[in-house]
Design a protein that fits this description.
By secondary structure, the protein is mainly alpha-helical. Helix content is 57%, strand content 0%. Helix 3 packs antiparallel against helix 4.
């Protein structure tokens, strides 16, 4: 509810859109640059593994390893693939945290640009 409340009630002009790409330069504010996120699994590998669309993210290669382990071990004994499952879950959590940080960064940059614009308009009125 946090995004819905701020997007439609409290701050509709500074709430980032969830569908649109970021409106600011990804390197803005990073003097040494940023580490680029790279997909490990290729589109062909994901198609060959018949990966559902909701699993085609930055952790797809770990999900494919987990599913391969489950196929190799009959009866789906839970403890045999627990390491692959844990690795995949950690990757998904880190991806979630990364997306939330990017959302917050976009929100703060939108608020900053609004403050700068309002300050410039106020100075223009007084000049």
């Amino acid at each position: 509810m946090g995004h819905m409340w701020s997007a439609y009630v409290t701050h509709p002009d500074t709430a980032p859109s969830l569908e649109d790409p970021p409106s600011f330069d990804p390197l803005y504010g990073f003097a040494e640059g940023r580490k680029e996120r790279v997909m490990v699994a290729t589109q062909e590998e994901m198609n060959a593994a018949m990966l559902p669309m909701k699993r085609r993210d930055y952790c797809a290669h770990l999900f494919m390893d987990f599913m391969a382990c489950r196929r190799e071990n009959p009866l789906h004994v839970p403890y045999r693939c627990s390491h692959q499952k844990h690795t995949y879950d950690v990757c998904e959590f880190e991806d979630y945290v990364h997306r939330m940080k990017e959302y917050e960064r976009e929100k703060r940059l939108l608020e900053r640009s609004k403050r700068k614009r309002l300050r410039a308009e106020g100075e223009a009125l007084h000049a």
